[in-house]
Design brief:
This protein is of the alpha/beta class. Helices cover 39% and strands 18% of the residues.
């Protein structure tokens, strides 16, 4: 099997590429390197450019006519940035995705796995969700994912392409073999801020402390990025069984999470249990676009993909710390 990974030079895309390679699936990488890293493409066919570039997509398929499926994880993903620049986020995540799928159709691509997000959900009172839960995205970023899901489903119903949307919860960790990890030195998510606080010897800021959770801080379903990548391998292996297309099943969604909620304060406790030096915390106001969060209660991934997470939150933190210590040796300044 050969798979085109759009955004394959980024944190998640590069990890998916490594998991595919380890499973005997050949990845081809497409990335414009706005946030991705060229180092993460080493040893793999790599095309530098945009998903909306029709001639480039045509060349990829001309040079790799045996591509069996496409994983689309090319997107801008920072919630506060999407609040500040919704135009840029809709253009990058929605407009270019529409162009991309039109190029895929022209080249006969029939299988698409789309990187969606659990941020599109409206959580219920106990902050859990499944694939049938109502949607209520609270940021421009989240709304771009919801729009793309609907757009792809509409296209799949009318054109010869089938689409599986995997709704990611909150990835953490790094490739356990330390081939790839977060490319940003200063990531904006909670764990990245904890590592930054440790390096700078300052307190970690708990952003938002009045949410309806057990300790007032936001809650997330933290999934190890390697487990997330393994879910994509399982989805590629089972794609035709999941979406045969002959019975009207042209698109569907699957949550990819652990099924366990971890609050920000609990994440910090886990961090301090594996870090060399503990990090204190200070409470501050929530950031624009932040929400209480949610975790999945769905068994659909286990049932349909025969997949379940193998790594704990503590392992994810440990791998993140290992990557932070080796990042500068892997990535050029």
């Amino acid at each position: 099997m050969k798979v085109l990974i759009a955004g394959g030079a980024g944190y998640i895309g590069s990890t998916i590429a490594s998991a595919c390679s380890d499973a005997g699936i050949s990845p081809v990488i497409l990335d414009n390197l706005v946030t991705g890293r060229r180092e993460f493409t080493s040893g793999r066919p790599f095309y530098e450019g945009d998903i909306a570039d029709g001639p480039l997509i045509d060349r990829v398929f001309a040079e790799h006519p045996d591509i069996d499926a496409v994983v689309h994880c090319a997107a801008l993903i920072v919630v506060p940035d999407s609040v500040a620049d919704p135009l840029g986020y809709y253009r990058a995540n929605v407009t270019k995705s529409l162009e991309f799928v039109s190029h895929l159709l022209r080249n006969g691509c029939e299988r698409l796995i789309f990187s969606s997000s659990a941020a599109i959900y409206a959580a219920d009172e106990n902050l859990t969700v499944d694939e049938e839960s109502p949607l209520d995205p609270q940021s421009p970023y989240a709304r771009t994912k919801a729009v793309c899901e609907g757009m792809f489903a509409d296209i799949a119903a009318a054109r010869p392409i089938r689409v599986l949307s995997l709704r990611y919860f909150n990835p953490l960790g790094a490739d356990p073999k330390m081939r790839t990890g977060l490319q940003l030195r200063r990531p904006s998510h909670a764990l990245g801020k904890m590592i930054e606080a440790q390096e700078e010897g300052v307190a970690f800021q708990v952003t938002g402390t009045h949410y309806p959770t057990r300790d007032g801080s936001g809650i997330r379903d933290y999934i190890h990025v390697w487990d997330l990548a393994a879910a994509h391998v399982a989805a590629l292996d089972r794609f035709d069984a999941l979406l045969p297309g002959t019975d009207g099943s042209r698109s569907t969604v699957i949550n990819v999470g652990t099924g366990t909620g971890t609050t920000v304060r609990e994440l910090l406790t886990a961090f301090n249990s594996v870090a060399d030096a503990p990090v204190p915390s200070v409470d501050v106001a929530a950031r624009p676009g932040d929400v209480a969060g949610a975790y999945t209660r769905s068994e659909r991934a286990h049932r349909l993909l025969d997949w379940q997470p193998q790594h704990s939150v503590a392992e994810g933190i440990r791998h993140s710390l290992q990557w932070a210590a080796t990042r500068d040796a892997v990535l050029r300044p």
